[in-house]
Amino acid sequence: MNQEAIYINNEQIPQEAVLSWEYKRLKVNYKRLKRISTGAISNDFNKWQAERNIDKMREALLSIKMNLGMADLKSKLSNQYKLGNLISVIAVKLSFGRRKFSEVDFYIPKSGITIQEVASQIDDIMLINTQAHFKINLNTNPDHYILKGMSNTVQEVLEFTGGVTFAD
Questions:
Q1: CB of 146 within 8 A of CB of 140?
Q2: Pairwise CA distance, residues 145 & 83, whole Å
């Protein structure tokens, strides 16, 4: 894994904090996938969990998601994401128009590519449906289940947020 610096509100987040968060989310999502999977799932995940081998845990989760496929994931998780969507609608109504915005800055020093090329590559990964792009999108975050281009500007996303404990 690349050792990139992550900042939130101009404060650098230690790599160990990021990995600790990911470790917790990998465990939660493995349990979710184990409950809905009809195929054989390797028990090696438990060994990798005990060893805190995040790379192997990530690979196992990706393998399960890819084997299930997007249609099966969407079907089997439909009740959970319908509940999450309902709660989101209620939360928006209760916010009375107050919103928080998220901003992401990418710093790619000495890469030799322009910002337009970076943006184009990100668009391709997010919107052009290939097995390689599905793997990248699903492996980026343990909470991602579906990231699928629907048109040249629209992406279907099914994810569970790491801060919502009732979805776990």
A1: no
A2: 16
Has this prediction a pTM greater than 0.70?
yes
State phi, psi for 130 to the nearest 5 degrees: -130, 160
Return the closest-CA partner of residue 59 out of 134, 158, 135, 129: 135
Q: Which residue has the tokens 């790379």?
A: 55
Distances (CA, A) of 58 to 55, 110, 164: 5, 28, 20
CA atoms within a 13 Å half-sphere pointing along the CA-CB vector of 21:
10
CA-nearest of 64, 89, 90 to 77 is 64
User: DSSP letters along 80-95, please?
Assistant: HHHHHHHHHHHHHHHT
Indicate if the pLDDT at residue 165 is higher than 60. no
How does pLDDT run across 54-99, given as a tens digit for each residue?
A: 999 999 999 999 999 989 999 998 888 888 888 888 988 898 888 7
Query: Which residues have a Cβ under 8 Å from the Cβ of 84 and sit 6 or more positions away?
Result: 160, 164, 167
For residue 148, what is the enclosing H or E element?
A: strand 144-149
Tokens of 133: 């792009």
3-class state of residue 127 by DSSP:
helix
